[in-house]
Amino acid sequence: AFRKLAMQFHPDRNPGDHSCEHKFKEINEAYETLKDPQKRAAYDRFGHAAFEQGGMNGGAQGFGAGGFADIFEDIFGDMMGGRQRRSSGGRERGADLRYNMEISLEEAFAGKTAQIRVPASISCTECSGSGAKPGTQPVTCSMCHGHGKVRATQGFFSIERTCPQCQGRGQTIKDPCPKCAGQGRVTEERSLSVNIPAGIEDGTRIRLANEGEAGLRGGPSGDLYIFLAVKPHN
Q1: What does the alpha-carbon distance between residue 43 and residue 56 come to, in Å, rounded to a whole number?
Q2: How many angstroms separate the CA atoms of 208 and 105, rounded?
Q3: Per residue in 123-154, pLDDT tens?
Q4: Mean per-residue pLDDT of the chain
Q5: Rounded CA separation 134/121 (Å)
Q6: Which distant-in-sequence residues (6+ apart) come within 8 Å of 83 by Cβ?
Q7: Main-chain dihedrals φ then ψ at residue 42, nearest 5 degrees
Q8: Which positions fall inside the CR-type domain (predicted)?
Q9: Integer Cα distance of 113 and 196 in angstroms
Q10: Which of 50, 57, 62, 162 gives 46 a disulfide partner, CB atoms 3.0 to 4.6 angstroms apart?
Q11: Mean pLDDT along residues 45-72
């Protein structure tokens, strides 16, 4: 993917086109950045937001939205494994959560039901997760007309980028919910019951579906993973 893009925007193939020369430099800078394991991990986790101003405690600081950071999202997204896109209406799946639990050897042998408390984002009850003030609704973005993408033409090339007005959601909120500030979710501590089967082994992972963070603006919730560690027997 990198070689194809580099050839497409190479200055030798686009003589006199300064926009292609600039794009070629951005592509090379992005590629070099993603060769760094730490920055690659940050991109896998946070997407292009990891390289916007203030991200990574340096590195790509100073590149605002619509600049260098967009290269990762719009050009390298597929090459990096295709980060999950937003669904229509700006709904996004919530993050998965991890909870570490220690149990005794006796509990691992016999099994038990444990109660845990997990701080996590949950759907806002005030706006039912929409992010909009009760009695109002999100409206279609006037810039991208609900597509979440805008197309820019540079010479012979047409490049599609994330809409800067709605950040790819396709909708904007004129009157945000006062409780969740337009996010559609709030952070609270929840109490959950975890069934630990008899004969469990050290290092076992238990998945609780849809018990992770709530999705953004009504999106599906993530999962909660319980990682069990069996304490040595005295």
Answers
A1: 10
A2: 23
A3: 888 988 888 999 998 899 998 888 888 887 76
A4: 76
A5: 20
A6: 44, 47, 73, 77
A7: -65, -40
A8: 111-189
A9: 6
A10: 50
A11: 43
Stated length of the chain: 234
Task: Give pTM, 2 decimals.
Answer: 0.48
* 52's tokens: 């916007």
Alpha-carbon distance of 166 to 118, in angstroms, equals 31
pLDDT at 57: 41
Amino acid at residue number 76: F
Tell me the two tokens of residue 69: 């950071």
Residues 82-135 have pLDDT tens digits of 444 445 456 778 888 899 999 999 999 999 999 999 887 888 889 888 889 999
